[in-house]
Structure formats: structure tokens, C-alpha cells
Amino acid sequence: MNDSIWRRDSSAPLMIRTDFASDDEWTRLMAAVVEPQTEDEFEADVDFVDDRAFEGVTAAQLLQLVPTDVHVTFAFLADTQTFAHPDRPILVVNLYDWVEGLEEQGRGPRYGTTFRVIPSEMHSVENNLSLSNMDWEEFADAVDDDGIFRGFGE
Hints:
Elements: E1 14-17, H1 23-34, E2 47-49, H2 59-65, E3 74-78, H3 80-84, E4 90-94, E5 114-117, H4 122-130, H5 136-140, E6 148-149
Parallel strand pairs: 1-2, 1-3, 5-6
Antiparallel strand pairs: 3-4, 4-5
């Protein structure tokens, strides 16, 4: 698999399509992800990857695909569960967990952990994790009983 998607000029996280059952559903999902969600028109800034080379890729497999010299902190997977669930929850994968003093930096205890996010809350996850305004655990600890982040509530 070509690792050029990891070595691009963009700093936006990737949203990788792993389920190719419906092009129409993928198109609707992409539109929902980038739709402005707040008064200030915050939206998720992601680079969409629509490449059959990623068909069926799981979070665990994704960890093996990221080159070791590339420091990508997280990615989104649009997998079978995303398209099967009525809320279309996208899988968020932690690709870099920094822990002070760790010999193999980036492989902390939350490396490889996941949670799901609904498209209308992608902006919150993407913006805050990209800017380090919030930590992984703040989102992961705020998921509903079904493992889906639907926002912090009112």
C-alpha cells in the first residue's frame, strides 16, 4: 500500500473509507462531515481518502500502515459499522499517544484506542485534537454507553 497519503502537504487528519458498499452513502457522509455545525460555522477539516486499497482495513491494521517516521496523531475510519448504524458514527483511531519519558514515544497506553463520533460532532473532535485544545481522553471519556461521542451536552 502506498504511504504517500501520510506524506502530504496538508496537516488535516485523514478520513479513510473502508466500506465500499454504497458510493451514495459515502457522498452523503462526506457532506455531513464538512457541513458547518455552529454559529461560527465551525466544520471538520479532513482529507478524504476514497481508495479501495483500504477496503476492510480495521483500526488495528491502520496502526501497521502508518510509517514510523510520520507523526500523525489520529485518523477517522468510515467503516461498515459507520454505514450500518442510523447515526453513521465514524471511528476515531488514536495513532500517537505521547507520554513523557516513554522509550518508544507515541506508543503510550492510549495508542490504538478508538471511539466513535457522529458526523455533526466531527468538527469538535477534529478541531480540538488537531490544535491540542483538548486531549484524547476528554472525548473518549465522554462517549455514550454505546461508545459514540455525540457532544458534551448542554
